[in-house]
Amino acid sequence: MFSTKYYNRYLDDHFDRQYYSGRLKLKKFDTDEFQSMINANQPNLLPMAPEPGPPCIETRNLSFHYKASNPVLKNITINVPQGRIYALLGSSGCGKTTLLRMILGMLKPKTGTIRVFGMQPGTAEVKIPGPGVGYMPQDLALFRLFNIEETFEYYGRLYGIPIETIKERIKYYIEFLNLPVKTRLITQLSGGQQRRVSLAVTLMHQPPLLILDEPTVGVDSVLRLKIWNYLEELCTKLGTTVIITTHYTEEARNSYRVGFVDSGIILAEDNPQRLLFKYNCRSLEDVFLELCLERARQPEISNENKPQISQHCSIPEVTVQIIVEESNDNHHESSENSSDGSIEQIEMSQIPRDMNNNNNNSQTSQEFKATDDTLISPILPTPPIHPNAPQANMDGATNTKLPWLDYSRLHALLAKNYLLYRRNPVSIILMNIIPLVQVTLFCVTFARNPENIPVAVVNHENRTQSLSNLFIDQLDQQSLSLHYFDNLDDAIKSVHDLQTRNVITFPSNFSRFFRKRFLKPEQITDEIIEQSRISLYPDTTHAVFYLYTYQKVLEGFEKFLTTVGKSMGFNPNFFGSPVVLTETMYGQNSLQYLEFVTPGMIIAVVHGLSMLIGSFTIIRERFDGHLERGFVAGIRTTEILLSHIIFYLVPLFTQVVLVLFLTFYIFDSQSLGSLWEVFLMTFVMASQGLIFGITMSITCQSQVASLLMVFIMEMPMIFTSGVLWPLESVPPLVKTLAMFNPLTLPIRSLHYIMLRGWTLMRPDVAVGLISAVSYLFVSLISGFVWFELFK
């Protein structure tokens, strides 16, 4: 049975209550009949609701799909009156959020039209997205490392609210929504408290349109009623239009109009009390069930033949709380009229519904009764909402702006990036600690000359004063660790057991036959040649050990010849190599492989880490919902990109300085060119890596995909850039393709600066800087276009 205070009064004065009570139970209630009775018998008791003004939101035959085979919305047609609360009811996944996103201008309909305040959303005139709307998403989308005050200040700056007004509203909403102290971090709040903070930042700039997606989930019933009262005051005093989705079906009875959504179709749209009367139901949940059953019986139903909306709803707009109790002796009169032995006791709690009658609202909204019979104190007075009160700037955050950039919003985004960076130790480690660790490990471990290579020696000459011992003395004892064996088998076995890496053997008559070989060349025989040889048994499975051991044996043999020739009275240079190294034109005679690799290492480290950091910027905010909420607040893609680029240039500057300081001053690497030009080239490459990462963050759909893309791109770029091995060793086609590698020309230019001392005035060096800047801008423009098209 459904009843209201007005209806009870109406029956008490003019009709027999028992007759109409029985009639309501026996047949479906005829709303039109009830309307005509009221008009004929008591026209002044229940005044007609005023004619609603032009609709705030109007959609016609709206359809949308991600895949053509699976439509999300099907010919949606709704009308949201201005200055009213409109509730959308439906199960999860029925299309409510998609509909809201199209109203916000975040999605474009496939067919149909949307008009908000008579204009298409997304245009500059309607300011939606922008300060013309307040949007509370279902997923909250709050920065968890912010505290409550910082959250208010961030969104307040986006909306252009003066800081003094922001402070006032922080104090008001903390008290109104029963929030903790303003210094409490969002991550330290409960789920319900986080939802209240999200609601508060949505309401703070008092826009003409509020779109709230599940605002009261996790909120206790007392506070829920306070929120509804506050929303009604906004509608009354400011003419604010509110669209709200909720899972609490009975909560929607407080709205002016309710729309039931199921599988992308509007089943019905009307005043909730009218729907309750029409379907003879006690709750909107029962109405929803009736609508679903009706649709099941008529599968061809569509939005064209859904129940029509009555623009002149005369049903008294009240909130009804129905409490069903078991019959007892104190209610014997009602028990006699009830066939099942139970009664229906009606507890009424009127909430202001006449949005155009301020007097009635002020009287009836002072107090109301909760389901637990606890009296709720009147809600706090709303923030100042008179004409002179500071409101959000509907033209943007500030008046000092460009067509594509607003300085106040840019300042808010930069402050946001700073707070997140400061409170996220992972970012600090990635930007500063890891580059230092990588450079340190590289300089300590990579491309240095190996030492203590184990070599087995078998010397069959037992004499101490032998040429074989003289040869052994000429070997570099620091690089080669000699292990002596009595026979060749034991020496070879040591190689098999990985105790040694190579074997050197000397014949038993090495000294005698070696002298004959040089003193009497005309008497040389095959036996003399064989007995004067030094045999090296290599283990080529370790190429570095083998090549380095062979090099040291040759160097030792040259020293050995010089010493033997000098002892025989020959000119020591007679036995030297005829190839002589003269004064070097570039570099140093003592150049090591480490110095050749260092330029490429510097660029590879800063470029790779910058790309990694950039790859998490946009996609992290998109994943947490911050990006969509920011777009609804009016942030432009250019402002987001510029805020990330400008902010991260400072950590990149620090990163490059630390890497170069460690390389040149701690590990004493040499640079014949200007360190300023080295810094410029390195900083440009770090910036290029950041832009590459941000572009990947825009294009990828998940953080894992973005991370994989970084590794997929970075490793081939390093391998084909000439960092580890010269490109002259690869086939001509591969070499040509490698020249288009973003790292190749900059690394070559840095190599020229550090090892040849050239400057950027030389074309061979300048081309590397030009290439780096060109790739930077190409990536930036590509990312901006993609971001603008698929945001």
TrEMBL record:
Signal peptide: none annotated. It is a multi-pass membrane protein. The chain crosses the membrane at residues 596-619, 640-667, 679-700, 707-727, 765-787. SUPFAM superfamilies: P-loop containing nucleoside triphosphate hydrolases (SSF52540). GO terms for molecular function: ABC-type transporter activity; ATP binding; ATP hydrolysis activity. It comes from the Eukaryota. Residues 558-790 form the ABC transmembrane type-2 domain. Keywords: ATP-binding, Membrane, Nucleotide-binding, Transmembrane, Transmembrane helix. Residues 57-288 form the ABC transporter domain. It is found in: Membrane. Its main location: membrane. GO terms for cellular component: membrane. InterPro entries: AAA+_ATPase, ABC2_TM, ABC2_TM_bact-type, ABC_transporter-like_ATP-bd, ABC_transporter-like_CS, P-loop_NTPase. SMART domains: AAA. Gene3D superfamilies: abc type-2 transporter like domain, P-loop containing nucleotide triphosphate hydrolases. This is Uncharacterized protein. It comes from Dermatophagoides farinae. The lineage of its organism: Eukaryota, Metazoa, Ecdysozoa, Arthropoda, Chelicerata.
